Fold:
Amino acid sequence: GVAGPVDTQRAPARRSVWPFVATGAGLLLLALAVLFGPGLFASRAGGTGGGSPTPAPATAGATPDAAATLSAAPVVVPPASPPATTAPTAAVPTATPAAPATPTTVGLLATTEQGAVGAVRFADGQKVVDQLQITATLSTLPERPVGKGLFAWMQDSASGTTVNLGRVVPDDAGLWSLAYNDPEQANLSGRFDGFLVTYEALETDPTTPSSEVVLRGQLPVQALVHIRHLLFSYPDTPQQVGLEVGLRAQVAALAQHAQLLDDAQKAGSLAKVKLEAEQIANLIEGNQGPDFGDLNKDGKVDNAGDGFGLLVGGSQPGYIQDAKDHAELSATAPDATANVKQHAAGVIATADNVQARVTTIRDQALAMLKATTIADARPLVATTVKLAGEALNGVPTADGKVLPVANSGGALTGYDEALLMATMPIQVVK
Structure:
């Protein structure tokens, strides 16, 4: 009777013990969380237990760890490239990184004479334009940082190549100069258009310039296209020589054959006079000239030149006209500097002087070919010798100087003016 109901009432009481235990455990865990903070759970997140831990809200303590991991990633996994020690030596141009330290917009802005502290000049050493002459005044530069030295570089903005010219150490007056001769005797006017001086760590042999640029020089890239046509290469000339390079060489050959002409006249050989007259006339006119050919009728064509000619002949402009055209194109380029314009005018003036003289020489040579006696040829020879010397060397002005102006400078002066067009002023980087 009584025992049955009692037993029925007690069974549920025994099953309900576990909820109380669970509740107590939950309260204990909550108390631990309050006492020890989120660090207790963070330590478990770094364990090796199975499964993926549930993401926890970011805390101030976790953020620096994440940042350190991200910043260290490039160091832990370096790019697959040779170490710096395997780079070529300073004498050989080396490629700079794809993203150069100096911004492109700065690197391509031409430097000018205003505020310049020096200049880079192209010159002839052993070969054509294979030398750089660099001068700079460094006395106004800030004191160099401890542990760093100044290094000079030549740079090509198009390809990104650079050449380390070595350590820059000024003298007691703050002056620094360098004559750099290309080890391959290459024409440097086609290789570089920029100059840098940077701070580099001492006791190193850097292969690329750092971003700490102190001095810079930059030729105007649009005008440089035509400066290079004058000094480096032009596609229409024999062997693609530069126009002023070819002009100078052809006028030098003309002057040499004028001397041979004079020797033949002095020896009394009319046949040799006519042979040299043919060589000179063909050199001046080029192989498309109206008179080009076997002018002395000896069965062969003799030519002291390379065939391109000094004067316009047929569809061939010749060295003189092409040189004038590209000097003008350089001077009228959108980025042409005052220096480019000034010396382009000198190139044009001297080319006009040469043109006037070689035109007369051509006429004198054609007249010699009609001479019947050596006496008839003698005054023509004398005029040719005189004018050939003037075409090459120029004519001094009243003060005794040969200048790049009308009636003075010759081919040598014109070539110097083309080199001066490529002068690169050096400026302090602010």
